């Protein structure tokens, strides 16, 4: 536990020093405050552009998934998570970047966060996980076009240094929370490393 807290301390401190609009939560609040559950405090450490959200902001239940776009189980669980939100009005999903499989994982993560600056992050995220077969450049270009993203602006935003910092921070948070692979999921306060079937997720909701 101490190692995790040190890691979280380091990652948030680095981000706060290098990102102008740093997180609204302090280190002390994250580690010692009991004003809200730990998984929600994790979200407070990240700027909005780093979070791919689907579902109502004030939902009673929050599911957080640390994921990688080249993770087969992340792709498997994606439609199940979307279905849960579509079937209920008390659940929100928050997808966070944890690109650990390959360098290509990080590149796709940068595309999605850059799209979030155009309020198209979820659209591109969903399109990528809805692709049949493997991710290719042609499929990615088609997804960008179909979601109505301004590609010129996207290419500019991909070069923003704060996008790299957001990915670094969410990856640090994943490791600090206990993730050793993807998917890694918070279902409210319950942390689960690995894939979990839809019905088991529903059983853990309020």
Features:
five-stranded mixed β-sheet; disordered N terminus; alpha+beta; 206 residues; 5 strands; single chain; 12% strand
Describe, in plain words, how this protein is organized in 3D:
There is one protein chain. The chain starts with a helix and ends with a helix. It has 206 residues and is α+β, with helices and mostly antiparallel strands. The chain is 54% helix and 12% strand. The longest helix has 17 residues. Helix 5 runs antiparallel to helix 6. It has a 5-stranded mixed sheet with strand order 1-3-2-4-5, sandwiched between helices. It is built from 10 helices and 5 strands, in the order αααββαβαααααββα.
Order of helices and strands: HHHEEHEHHHHHEEH
Structural class: alpha+beta
Number of strands: 5
Global Rg: 16 Å
* Biggest β-sheet: strands ordered side by side in the sheet: 1-3-2-4-5
Provide the helix percentage. Answer: 40-55%
Largest sheet: 5 strands, mixed
Overall pLDDT: 89
Name the shape in a single word. Answer: globular
Instruction: Give the termini distance in whole angstroms.
Output: 27 Å
Portion in strands = 5-15%
Helices, by number, come to: 10
Q: What oligomerization state is this entry in?
A: single chain
Q: Residue ranges: pLDDT <50 for 5 or more in a row?
A: 1-7, 16-22
Question: Could you give a short description of this structure?
Answer:
The protein has 10 helices and 5 strands.
List the helices and strands and how they pair.
Layout: H1 2-18, H2 27-32, H3 38-44, E1 52-54, E2 61-67, H4 72-87, E3 91-97, H5 103-116, H6 121-129, H7 137-146, H8 151-158, H9 161-177, E4 184-187, E5 190-193, H10 198-204
Parallel strand pairs: 2-3
Antiparallel strand pairs: 1-3, 2-4, 4-5
Helix pairs in contact: 1-9, 5-6, 5-8
